[in-house]
Structures are given as structure tokens and as C-alpha cells.
Amino acid sequence: MSATEREGRWLDVRATLWSTPWLVGGLVFVLAPLVTTILLSFCQFNGMRMPAFCGLENWYALFDDSVLGLTLANTSTFALLTLGLGTVVSLATAVALHHAKVGATWWRVCMLAPTMTPLVAVGIIWRWALNGEYGLVNNCLAWFGIDGPNWLLDANWTLPSVVLISLWGVGQSSLILLIGISDVPKTLQEAAKTDGASPIAQFRLITLPMIAPLILFNLLVDMLYVWQTFAVPYIMLPGGGPGRKCYFFTMYIYDMAFRYQRFGYACALCCVELLVVLIPLFIARMLIRRLPIVPHAL
Amino acid sequence: MTVVLQWTTQIPPPFTAQYRRRFAENVHPDKIPLCHGIVSRRHSFAPLDRNEMNAVRILLLASVVLGLVLLCLNAPPRSEPAPAAFTHVVYWEKWSGYEAQAARAVVDTFNATIGKEQKIFVEYVPVANVDVKAQIAIVGGDPPDVVGLWQRNVSGFAAANALIPLDEIGDTDPVETMTIERLWNACKYHDELFAVPSTPATIALYWNRRLFADSAQALIDAGMDPSQAPRTLEELKRASEILSVRDDKNRLERMGYLPGTAGSFDWYWHTWPTWWGVTWTDPSTDRLDVARFDVVEAHRWVQSYTRDYGFKNVLDFESKLGAFGAPDNPFLTGEVVMVRQGPWMAHLLRRFKPDMDVGVAPFPTRSGEPIGFFEMDVLAIPRGAKNPQAAWTFVDWLYAGEPITISGYRELAPWLDGATLKDALGDTDQSELQLKPIEWLCWLHGKNSPLADLSDAFVKTHPNKGIDVHEFLARQTPAATLPPLPNWSELLSEYRAAYGEVWISDCDVQARFEKCQREIEALTKTCVARYLRWGVTYP
After folding, report:
1. Please, what are the domains in chain A?
2. For the segment A60-97, what is each residue's pLDDT rounded down to a tens digit?
3. Taking CB atoms and an 8 Å cutoff, what residues of chain A touch B530?
4. Nearest chain A residue to B8, by CA
5. B416 Cβ contact partners less than 8 Å away, ≥ 6 residues apart
6. ipTM above 0.85, yes or no
7. Would you kindly state where each structural domain of chain B is located, as residue ranges?
């Protein structure tokens, strides 16, 4: 074995040692619970008696559960609206920040600050801001002569309210896109400008394709978060609010496990959530592979 | 022009000296993918140099040290350790604030008296979400010796074999004879006793006497007595209409009564069938049925009540209302004239509006005959408790212990002045108020007494001036409480969802409650199957 190989192997050993805490953590806190969840989904378990094997009973029960259908519909609608709006807003803010001439650093801090606010505080702040009578949002709408809705008490407005609140955290996505936009080579834009491309054409033909992987990355990460939305709606709209329009999938899992002691069924629901999240991830992976990539193009 | 992108999933190697060198040699900093470093001032990414790495290390170390220091400074005070040779009883309870102070004071009295004699030390541990945590502790094999649950938990825990039947531990007969029968029976599951009441409460109507007096003439014109609370639901509706105030745009500024809110200060939607005079279960089939004609009619009444004010109007009004445990509680601010609440309202009134002129009356019913709806907190001994006998000694002492004086609790009862005490003691030889331990607990909580033999001093000195009404409701009226079903919480969620739609929208009540009934039947069917597998009969 040559000296270089020995050095390489030693480096591998060191790298493995450095990774050990993460690997152990992953095994104990991710893999073991995952396996346990899958096993428990085939058991009847109420958290107090020993789990009793019940075959596919929990899985069959999924098809008879109308509340599950409701939560899936709510969560899907919420995810689509949030991801769509979130992407547009984060892209718009990233472009605006990129072109900001004054106080760019402060704007970036302001964008990131909401993501550092504790979720409970976020829930309380928004509960006040969206109050139908005294809320900040309706007061602002009143300046334009708009009689704002009763955001959190009117069944037709609760879901849009939660979507609006979820935009509160787009700062992180914006910053990632901002970094991507900042890294677009100026030479390409200058060349396009010389060829007579308008700013919109430059954005559409140069910037957007170059940051497409980052947009996809943001979408995937946000989708994981969106499907796990729990704390804010749970605080603001206990039980899903009027008409249970904001009764989301994760809230249902929590209720099943900890309020109704149906851990086995809750585990089956967790597996469903895993599948629901994995399918778009696989699709995204395929999309990424099909992206026209040439190494070192940047 | 074709623009081609690079998307890398390469995992960054550790930033050893060799790797840093290789990076520096092979990769231009502007080309390093996003995850390989930190944002530089040029908005591109570069690996950290030695000084930067040291700075990060120092920062991380300082954060850890600071965190540990803060943790040490803010560590909760350790409870007094059990003396050597004493049996250690761990008591988990859900209460916080003044309720926890009261429970702790009673526990301290036990430790200082009978506990000292029998070498038992009870450690009071306040636990949030006690039902969930007790459940996890029981399955984990390390439960407390005594756990303070809610009445609604008893059936579920008992059916899951998570509680020890109290008759297996000690002689419960003496305690039974002391307790109000209906409360005692509500602690049973399949005729076995799994808990004892700790602090019961009945639901009553709290009404603002001053606002009634202000509208006296209008109330008299409507055939009502302004010095009395409404007795029937129709009177409640009429009084509410008179007491409600609208502005010039017809928007509600004050409401006589609200049959529901989005949960901020009304927890008793599920009591509605009771006031209408119907039960949850169909007497002919003995099964839970919310799609029955009477139950649907009860909720049609609720819907028509809100419809009269305008659904949007009521929603807008509700937006203005504050939270329950705050000075802007709508009853305290006078925005709502009558509320459906328990005896603990006294503490809220004393704290935020001591001069408020409040009346307490049985909640109106359809027939006008009062009905006592009660719920309670209970004490139970979990399966797997290490010292069940000692735990029972403590629970038994709460009921059977010698009366104790107020001296130890004086600071927890600032409302008790000399004149009230003198009036309560009357011609007796006592110079201090004496109550049984369980009475102290309920008295300090501002709740009902579970004892069948209600002492005069308890009522006269109670923080709630209307406790006599609550006690009347607990003892001398037809009673109603939660059905003893192990999956009650799940069924209640379905009911609340239906009520939540009915009271504030123009939906079809019959259809909504038929849907609710279908959900309830499906959940019950699943529950029956689950319990059959464990060999337990669903009630």
C-alpha cells in the first residue's frame, strides 16, 4: 500500500469517526423509530396495553376514515397554495433584494428574522393580526375601503389565513434564491444585454434557468415542512377551526396518538404521510436527473 | 443561447489541512457549491480558514457554556427529598397556579401529620398534559403512585388496564359513605372503582346583576323579574335580546348570552343536550344517538338563536372578545351578560373585578327544572405504582383525615376576613375554621365539595358566594355528566365539530347530526373491535 493510499484510508477512518455521532443519532432517532412505526402500524396499541398484532386492520381502516379524507384534502390544498404562493413571493423578494441599492444587508436580516421567531409567538402574533375586528390586516384593508373578512372565525377564510401566515417564513427560501441569483455570472447577462435582451427576457432566459435547481430544492424542502405543519394551526385554530377547514394531517396523527390513544392507527397514518412525501421526492429526483446539466457551467 | 447548470450532490469532505489545500488548488472559490462553506462578503462560498474555524469553535463552545450556566441558574427548585426510611409516594397532578399551591399546601399538611406518623412522604409533582404523560409512564413501567386525572380519562384508562381498582388496595367503603353517590358512581367503570373525586364542579349560569338592573323596565315589560336569572331557555333568549346592545350600524356591542364561542371561554358545548332535557344515549336502545329528534331539535334551537342576531354579526362580535383567564374576559368587561361556567369563576372575579355584582343560578333548561351537570378531577392509582398502599393512605386521608385548621392556608385565602369567619363559626367553640383535607382542597380551588355531608362553614367561607347554588346542583337535582365511554374524547371531537358548524352557520341541522351519528357509529364499531381483541367489553 502506497503512502498516498495509506493517507487516503486514514482519512476515510477519520471521516467515519467524525460521522459516528450523526450515524448513531440517525440509527437511534430516525431509523429505529421508523422501523417501530411501520411495525406498530400492524398492531393495535393504545400506549398502555402491550401491542397486539392485528394484521392489516389499521390499513383497511384508512379507507373507511372520512376524517382522514378531510385532513388529506385540507393538507393538499394548503400545500399547493403555500408552495405556489411561497415560490412566487420568495422569488419576487429575492429579485427585489438583489437589486436593492440601499440597506440591502438590513433587508436580508429582516427577511430572515421571522424564521427565527418561535412558532408559539408567531401563532399569537398572527392571531392578533388577523382578528376580524381589531386586527392589523383588516385595519390596513380598511384604509383602502375594504371590509376585511373574519379571518379566523369564518370557515371560508381560515385556510387562506393559514396560507397567508405560512408566507411569513419565506425569508429562508428567498435568501437561498438570492444567493443563486447573485452567483449568476454577470458576463452572461451582459452578453444578453448586448444582444438586445430586455430585463424580463434576461430574467426568463438566464436567471430563471440558472436558479431552477434552487427553486426545486426550495420546493422539496418546503413541501416537507408544509406536510408537517402543526404548531401554528394547532395553537390558532384548535380542532381545525370552524368547519375543521384547517384540520391538517399531522394534527390528526397527533390527536389519534395522544388524545385518543390509537397509536397503532396513528402509526399507519404516519406511514401514509411518509408515502405522500416520498412520491413527490422521487418525481423531483427524476426531474433533477433530466435537467440539462453540464459540469462546471457555473 | 443554451445555459447549462451544475447540480451537485457531492458530500463535502472534512476541512482538514489536506482537503483545504486540495480545494485551494483545484477549485476556484466562486465555483464551490452552496453547501461547502459559509456566505462570504462576495456572496459566494469559500471554505473556512484556520482563524475562521477557530472563531466558530470558540463561538460554539461559548454557546454551550452559556447554555449550561443559564440552565443551572434557571433549574427548577428540587423538591424536598423524602426522609430516610420513609415510603416515597410520587403524586402527579395537572394543576398550576393557585390550584397547584393549594394542592401543595394540603400535601405538606399530610407530610407533617399522618405522613410523619406512618413514615410516608408524598412528593407533589405538577405535570402538564398529565393524562398523556401518565399514559407514557405507565407503559414505560415507571408511573407515579398517585395521578390526578380528569373524569373523562377514567373509562379509557380503566379499559386499558392502566389503573388499579381501588378496592384491591384498601377499604373504600368508609370513603364511599362520605361521598356524594353520583360523583362516586362516575368514578366507576364496569362497576369497579378506579378513582375518587378530588375537586368536582357543577355548571351554572353567572349573570351580571348590574346590567340586569340597568334594563329592569324592559325586562319587566317582557314579563321577567330583573332580580332573578332566567329559568327557562325561552326566558334566556328573551332576556338576551333585551340585554344585547347594537350600535347605529346594527353591529353587536353587547350580547345577553352566547351559546358558543370558538373556544376562548366556553368549554361546555357538550352540555347542550342536558339543558334541553335530553340524554346522550337513547333510553330505548341505550346507545349513543345524536341524530334523535330531540337532540336535533335542541341544536336547531341553538342555530335559530344565533340566526336571530345574524351569523356574521355574532362572528364579528366574537372577534372582539378576550380570553377566559384575563382581565378582558367578556363577562368581566360586560360584553357578555350571562355565561355558562363553573365555580372557579369566583377566583377570576376576585382577581380582576372584585366589586362586580354577580348572580349565580342554575343554568336555564327547556322545562325550567334545574339540572345539575357535573364534571370533576379525580385521583387514581396507576398500574405499576411502586407504593400503592401508601398512595391509598394519602387518598384515604384526604377524605377520612381529621379536620384541620386554616392556619396553614391563611395566605392562600386572602378573602377570608374576620367578620366572615365569625359568621361561619357562629356559636361554636372553635376560633379557627376547620375543614376536612378534601374540603380544603376544593375550598381553595373554589370548587364544590365531594362530601355528602356539606359543612355550613364550607359554604359560608367559600370564595364563591354562589357555591350554595353549585352544591344544590350537585346534590338535589336530576344529574347529568359525561357518558362513561373509553373513547369519549374521540366521540366528543365529532360532536364538537357538528356543534361548531351548527351554532354559527345556516347548515341543515338534521343532516349535520346524522353525519355526526354516522361518524360516532363508525368510531364505536372500531372501538368495540379493538376492545374485543383485548377481551374487554365496550360499555
Report:
1. 65-290 (1.10.3720.10)
2. 999 989 899 999 999 999 999 999 999 999 999 999 99
3. 44, 46, 262
4. A295
5. B406, B410, B433, B461
6. no
7. 14-53
